[in-house]
Amino acid sequence: MYFITSKILWLIVAPSSFLIILLCLAVLLAFLRRFRAASILGGVVTLSLAILSFSPVAERVALSLEQRFPAYKDDGRPIKGVIVLGGGLNLASSVTQGRLVLGAAGDRLVAMADLARRYPDATIIFTGGSGYLFGSSGSEADVIEKNLIHLGIAPNRILFERASRNTYENAVMTKAMVQPAGGEHWLLVTSALHMPRAMGLFRAAGFELEAYPVDWRTAPDFNGMLSDEPASSRLRLFDLAIREWVGLFAARFTGQSRELFPAPY
């Protein structure tokens, strides 16, 4: 029920979706001849879209998440295993085309292939089913397993958890699958933006890992105002960052995480 509710609510409260709904409301008010209310609401929405699309607000919100866990540095300790979270595929296109179609978070799969090569004795687990509410006929794990050769990974090198639909289920189901022992050194691979929420959920599930962030969306020393990225890219980044912040609060409120804003120990 939590999965379905969260998906439906996010369709409405995602910043870009919410602003479009408000803009439609402004048009309706104008149609009803409530011109003053329509102009005020339309002006607020237009200004909000302009600020989010052309200012560095999105980068600033995302940066606080991405810098929470630093890039991994190998300290020489033996690595028992690696957990790679799903989300790196465009699942619908992959199923339709019958091949790997990487999404914006495809760095997760690149890291999986790299870590499998660098640590041949480590257990590598990919966890991910389908996060779609409707219309999905496959799981990420199934698609990746069929296409391991295209990632340069030998068959049977990766273990798969196929049923999880979100990060909470990734944590609970992978913990049950692995049954990690105390003192073991495990890595968690996911996008830097997503790492704080993922670490909180895995810790609460009783699985202690070290963060291996990938897929950074921000560049602190780069002036994005001078880039040729379309305005919509900032709006998309703001959506992703707000989704993580909402997810952090929701996880803490529902007891799925013990920490509001997890940090390295």
Put the structure in a nutshell.
This protein is an alpha/beta fold. 49% of the residues lie in helices and 9% in strands.
Explain how this protein is built.
There is one protein chain. α7 links the parallel β2 and β3 (158-161). The chain has helices at residues 2-13, 15-31, 35-54, 57-66, 91-97, 107-118, 140-146, 167-178, 195-204, 231-254; strands spanning 81-85, 123-127, 158-161, 186-191, 210-214. The mean pLDDT is 92. The chain has two domains: 2-65 and 230-249, no CATH class; 71-216, HUPs (Rossmann fold), CATH 3.40.50. It is an alpha/beta fold and 265 residues long.
Characterize the main sheet. Answer: 5 strands, parallel
- SSE pattern, N- to C-terminal: HHHHEHHEHEHEHEH
Q: N- to C-terminal separation?
A: 33 Å
Give the percentage of residues in beta strands.
5-15%
Strand order of the largest sheet: 3-2-1-4-5
Mean pLDDT value: 92
Helix content: 40-55%
Report the count of strand segments. 5
Query: Which architecture of the largest domain does the CATH hierarchy give at level 2?
Result: 3-Layer(aba) Sandwich
What is the CATH C level class of the largest domain, in words?
A: Alpha Beta
Summarize the SSE layout with pairings.
Layout: H1 2-13, H2 15-31, H3 35-54, H4 57-66, E1 81-85, H5 91-97, H6 107-118, E2 123-127, H7 140-146, E3 158-161, H8 167-178, E4 186-191, H9 195-204, E5 210-214, H10 231-254
Parallel strand pairs: 1-2, 1-4, 2-3, 4-5
Helix pairs in contact: 2-3, 3-10, 4-10, 8-9, 9-10
